[in-house]
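User: My advisor, Dr. K., asked me to get a structural model of this assembly before our group meeting. I'm new to this, so sorry if the format is off. These are the inputs:
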Amino acid sequence: MEIDFKHKQAAHCENGVVANLMTYNGFTVSEPMVFGIGSGLLFSYIPFLKVNYAPVVSYRALPGIIFTRFAKRVGIKIKREKFRNAQNAKARLDENLKRNNPVGLQVGVFNLPYFPDEYRFHFNAHNMVVYGKKDGRYLISDPVMETVTSLSEKELEKVRFAKGAFAPKGHIYYPTGFPKKLDLEKAVIKGIKHTCRDMLAPVPIVGVKGMRKVARLIRKWPKTKGIKTANHYLGQVVRMQEEIGTGGGGFRYIYAAFLQEAGKLLGNGKLLELSKEMTLIGDQWRDFALEASRIYKNRSNTAAIDQYSAIALQLEALADKEEAFFKQLRKSI
Amino acid sequence: MKKNDVPQDKSNLESAKFRELCYAVDENGEYVTELSSGWTPKTIALDNAIETLNDRISAAKQRVIAQKTSPLEYYMELHKMDLPILSSYAGLWQWRLKRHFNPAVFKKLNEKTLQKYADIFDITIEELKRTDL
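Assistant: The format is fine. Below is the predicted structure of the whole assembly, which you can bring to the meeting.
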């Protein structure tokens, strides 16, 4: 069976799945709108977690939380389920497909055969939609891909039961109840307020304070960890910022697109101005990545020590800019 | 970022005929989406990360050949795993995995444990035991 599902490529998998599922159910919502209402934008440094032997810096909210917040704020109901064993997980998926209900799945990336080899890491918070089953293969709409694809039963089981941090455990989710009309205006305001609160939070590892903390660490790395490790760490910071799914500039461009759409929706000229400002901040993040890449281009670049303090300064300048930005944004709604 | 400035650099995406979506502004200042084939600064970061992984794999291989560790560690690195990830797949504590990295302990492992590891790496027990990698 095949459900008539419209695949639309997105920058980020979670927003993409939500936007596509909403469109299928008759509510056209753009990806930036989902991201903004779900308060996806963030900066955080997670000191107790290491991925690929390097500390983790995240530019977005935790996996899954964007959809939860989005659903709550626009008033839709979602059903989520996790499973202990693969048979039950498969049975529930088949049941939904039989009822012509496309569902979202959380999966691990490492065993996804259609991903380029270089991108197959043990990252477990990827999202996709299954919209049918044909000749024993599941039909997959993966929002970061240009077109739809398919997976065999065994392949899908493997990615649904990937292990490690954020193990999906067969996680399946879909919207079940909708209001008559989406109350986007109120939801937008709530989403913006939440993001301002997060970015200005008085917590040393979150928001602008987190950026300053990472800037301090960048200064320290070459001395305490050695150039090679410091370059490896810096490379990971840039990858988290720019890799597939961010839409560029550590999600800042998606957020600027959201502010533009929100400004038009609410008839608020200030938001349109702030959208332009956010675009400039995104450009500055790109400059930061470009400068950083000049340092780690050579993996054991010994001449790089003063360059480290230069990019730490760049990051601090970004923190100042974003602090001023979110204070202004808070006032403008 | 302007729509025309969306980078179209050569990257690892090319081999898979894959392009990623970016957000950028067009000439009227409106946000639109544009596909990008890659951007060099992040391609370098990814290439370096892969090189670091490859270094780890060949180091583990050398240690297996020198009988300083068991093939288990080599396969863990080969599958881009670290201890917490392998521990989660195997359902064993990390200290037990570390113990199994000891060649003497590894030799004495029972069939059931070996089969569990072999299944994780999608190989046979004989392949898992081979030390002439």
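One thing worth pointing out at the meeting: Strands of chain B lie at 20-25, 31-36.

User: Perfect, thanks a lot.
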